Fold each of these.
Amino acid sequence: MKAIGYMRLSFKDQSRYSLDAQETSIRNYCLRYNLELVALFKDNGQLSSTFNRIDFKALESYIRKNKGEVQYLVVMDHDRFSRDLSEALSKICTLEKLYGIKVVSVDEPIDIDPTNPTAFISRAFRYATANAELLNIRARTRRGIKRARLEGRFINKAPFGYRNGRDILGKGILILEANEAKIVRKIFSDYLSGISLLELTHSAQQMGFCLVGHGCIKRVLSNCIYAGLIPFRGDDGVLKYVKGIHEAIVGEQDFIIVQEKLCATRQSNLKVDREFVLKGLLKCHCGKHMTAAWSKGRTKYYLYYQCMYHRSLNVPGVVVHDRFGQILNTLRLTPQQIAYLYKETRCQVDMALNDERSQIDARKQMIVELNERIDSLEEHFIERRLDFNTFDKWSKRYRSDQKKQEEIVEDLLGNIEVQLMVVEQLFKTSSSIGDIYSLLNPLQRLLLGRYIFRHGFTWENGEQQIVYRLHYLLVASSFMKRDC
């Protein structure tokens, strides 16, 4: 009887499963049951959740070419074969039906019957356990990545201007490359000076900029890593930024100005659309929605609303917006409504601040680790295992990094306090919908207007007034009843 062996090593398993140990176990199994081992296949550093592996594909090719000559596929353990329950059972069934090959591990008898209910349940349980361990590994990896980012660490391949290295705690950190950083600095300063992206590309390449491809300069200008910031998605799915522990190449303010400039270039018409706050809400007396557009005057552009069916009706935007603001200011909020809105807003703000609190916990853990390193350093110095120069060098580095982390924690705590205070002040000074409306961005204003004034506005040109049906009162009364 002939057999082939299969070995797999993932990056996380090297301390427990070496390729040599797997090969020895497979060879001993073949000797024990008098099997002729005709081939060995090994995947080094391949995923366990898929069979799309380099050497496993070679194994399947060997099986197809030598169909009927091999009776067994031997693995050290079933989790070396796969950690995906459904994929593993399906692949075992395919190998047995198409090629007559039985998959066995070294701790199973050679005459095991996979169709036996007890054997099937036992094998399925082992694959389910391996699958659960795979899910645990992924969860631990996600938690580790999130914690590293909350600590301000960049965990991927270093971008141009940096190289990957290790800090005093032995963890990954970005180390500045002086020559490349100089080029990045020049790219930002030139762009702020008004130089075009094409000219920037030629200039940077002459200095030694090695990145190629369409938009490579834009990618550099959009990369927050150069401003010392680490991006991550919070629990609410919103993209946020953490102060990194690596050295920044450009200042945060310069980076923000560059982003605004890039955004203005991509969306040159966005500023115009922001003024059309009543588009889709304002109606003509005929019942049709009015469109908005700019009209050129002698010195500047003026906003007008116009009915497509009554061309003579041109309403100045400043007049309509003024009337709209008066309406919003007349919509007073009762103390009960303000209390309800404060409660809901405070709840949402607390949820948004969870990521900041997680970042504080991660930074505090770093401070604890640094304290342990300092204590260990002092103990070695007292016991004369370290000379003074070495002790002084590392003590200064540990304490400097500790001070930096403490300052970041203090800033984060202050930021949380400020945000909560802003919410308090907002609802102390807000008494109408107009007060809240003035604090919103254009999109939020549009959504609020369409929610409160669901039926829109009708412009009565004869009396120069806005007629509207107010949905807000129904909404206010409904949420007050629900809250009670």
Note: The chain has four domains: 2-146, 162-269, 277-332+446-483, 335-429.
Amino acid sequence: MKLNIAISLFFLIIHTSFIIKPIWGFQAHQTINRLAVFTLPPNMMPLYKKEIAYLTEHAVDPDKRRYVSPTESCRHYIDLDRYAYFPHNLLEALALHTQIFIINDKKDTLKLTGYPNVFLHQRDFFLKSKSIKTFFKRDSIAIADTTYRQFVFNHFLKQYQDGTWTIPNEAIEKLFEKERFITKGRFKKVWAKDGLSATGILPYHLIGMQKRLTNAFMQKNKQAVLKLSAEIGHYIADAHVPLHTTRNYDGQLTRQMGVHAFWETRLPELFADKYNFWVGQATYFEKPTDFFWKIVQKSHELVPKLLEIEQEVSKSFPNYKKFVSTTKNGVTLTLQTQEYATLFHEKLDGMVEQQMRDAVLAVGSAWYSAWFEAGQPNLNHLFEKMPMGEPNLDTTAYAKKDKMLGRDEGIIWKE
């Protein structure tokens, strides 16, 4: 154990002498991935240390996809303050949030399900809405837990994020027939829409990625291991940003517009070169669901304090002392002044530093746990030859667009 710590510390000391000031934009994601390598045990170094340049460079691939993929943005956040209850299981979350529409035998378009018209109680899912009453002549109906979960698995989970989902008429007829409702011939058309993604799916996406990374180790697929390691690092870092866990993600609901980039970009840009990034060794976690949900919940607990402090600091500064114009790479930017940012940073009392430190350790722990779960394969020889794996590792194939698709939390990216 002492030898492992000494080796990791040696690599970290050497590495930190070459660190450029990190920012929580693209450069911060790269810094977090790079530092996470030095939390790993020596048995993982033959792959991760050798490929540190790849893991660093491709830490930003998910953000690049946000300019071309309409389904990417929701993977970077979750609005934990939008609903009172969030199931930690994706299948159950889809059961509660997916919207099922029908055209009945009278040619009426009815919305049968969708939050808050579905709720789980004990061993049943209950459906309650005006449309349910219109169609079934009852205020609510109950469907057995196992029956509804199997329906969700077959018809929602397999099509998730594919846009509008097709549901065969016979499938929904069978669903209600099992619960003693006569519906044959009454459904003229059935379809479903994703009602979950608008809230954000960050922890659900992380759970799925952890499973895929473990499988990639088991399959001895170097391409997939590197790609998934680089990208899960990005999403884990996002999960440590408090404003990625709230619908008030840029202070737009409290007249604090710009606070997102202020916290995650400007403050690290000015102060992260003084942060202590020695975080120790990666640790194994047995339950990815618990691990990732604890991260976003802890981040969310910081939101009130963050917004309160920013509001307090903002009121203490006249506008003419808050901002300064600067030019970077030929682009003129308006940024918070050193004096204004310093006071905000001091009032936060180490919040940004701690979240970045936690992100580094969490990324390393995710990599280590996937490798451990896969049986701790020998990385000295396992990846000498790169087998065919997942394509498009080089994201230069993603054509950049001027406008980010989906929600932009305030990340500034200029090249």
Note: The chain has two domains: 2-79+200-397, 90-199.
